[in-house]
Write a structure and sequence with these properties.
The chain is built from 13 helices and 12 strands. With 331 residues, the protein is of the alpha/beta class. The termini are far apart.
């Protein structure tokens, strides 16, 4: 069977080809009864628009690049942040008939590949996730005049709209909880210091300790479980008398709990532990983890809505989502 054409749809609906085309392309300058006739003809004939031809007319690809500045081994690892954010962004875009093009950008070669692809007009906009330090992509993409939004505040001085959570306020709430429950020697396992999330959560920790006359005790991890275990062992060597630790994400907190258990430290009797993110596994650690709830899915969905707003010429003000302290048995 031959594929139904736009001319056949127009003939079935009793309208011109130009009118049928306006309906297919979503233009609003067509009377409702004519639009209904065209849509009915599309349904009866099983017509499927030619996406390439439609893009020429609308100047839209209906595709959005989701660029993750991490290697695939990190994105498709045990860290649920990436899968949750990707799934949420995909669902939000699917609801408006757009698709995600997932791209990794963790090396100069991959940065150049991403920039070439986007400059080729293959996508309508870009969402950036997990940027590190002097990542060249935000500046490079802003020069291409393509709409760009960021999951998290950019670390580089470039005007890109972003959606973030209250990293500083959340960290302050977690550390304040430790202070208020009588802990005196409160350490932290900070996140990577080339990432805004790692920097801000360390800032929140230091803010509370400075105001409460406690001494800072800091080790740095990379948001992986293994780095949390290594950092916890380092902290125990540096200060065997510590009685609490604020950990900048839950995966590192899982590693920290393992090291504390191996060292014979009871949680929370000897050392209280607070994490950040409230991943699903936080409910099932031993003991269950007190943590800050970071709304990953909501943040990714808000990022999509911000980008869609940019498509329509709307506002580009940053969006900051609140965090929430979830108290369980570890603190």
């Amino acid at each position: 069977m031959r594929r139904p054409t736009l001319e056949a749809v127009a003939a079935r609906a009793g309208v011109s080809r130009a009118t049928a085309s306006r309906v297919v392309n979503g233009q609003t300058t067509v009377a409702p009864h004519i639009r209904d006739a065209v849509l009915r003809a599309i349904d009866e004939l099983g017509y499927v628009p030619n996406s390439a031809a439609r893009s020429l007319v609308t100047q839209r690809t209906d595709s959005v690049a989701l660029v993750v500045s991490e290697p695939g081994t990190r994105v498709f690892s045990e860290d649920p942040m990436f899968s949750t954010a990707i799934r949420s962004a995909s669902m939000e875009l699917e609801a408006v008939n757009k698709q995600v093009v997932l791209m990794m950008a963790s090396s100069p070669k991959s940065h150049a590949r991403v920039e070439r692809y986007i400059s080729g007009g293959h996508v309508d906009g870009v969402m950036l996730i997990s940027m590190h330090g002097a990542d060249p992509l935000p500046s490079a993409l802003s020069r291409l005049r393509v709409p760009v939004v960021s999951y998290g505040r950019p670390a580089v001085p470039v005007e890109i709209p972003y959606v973030d959570n209250d990293n500083i306020g959340g960290a302050e709430a977690g550390v304040r909880h430790l202070v208020e429950t009588g802990r005196r020697r409160i350490a932290t396992i900070a996140g990577p210091q080339d990432m805004i999330g790692g920097q801000d959560r360390l800032t929140g920790y230091r803010n509370v300790l400075r105001d409460s006359d406690h001494r800072s005790i800091v080790a740095v991890g990379d948001f992986t479980r293994e780095s949390g275990a290594v950092a916890m062992r380092q902290l125990l060597r540096d200060d065997p008398e510590l009685d609490a630790v604020f950990v900048a994400n839950d995966l590192m907190a899982v590693g920290a709990l393992q090291s504390l258990r191996q060292a014979g430290r009871r949680v929370p009797d000897d050392v209280a532990v607070v994490g950040f993110d409230d991943i699903e596994a936080a409910k099932y650690t031993e003991p269950p983890l007190t943590t800050l709830r970071h709304p990953v899915a909501e943040q990714a969905a808000a990022m999509v809505r911000l980008l869609l707003n940019l498509f329509e010429g709307g506002a580009s003000e940053p969006v900051i989502l609140p965090t929430e302290l979830v108290i369980r048995e570890s603190a």
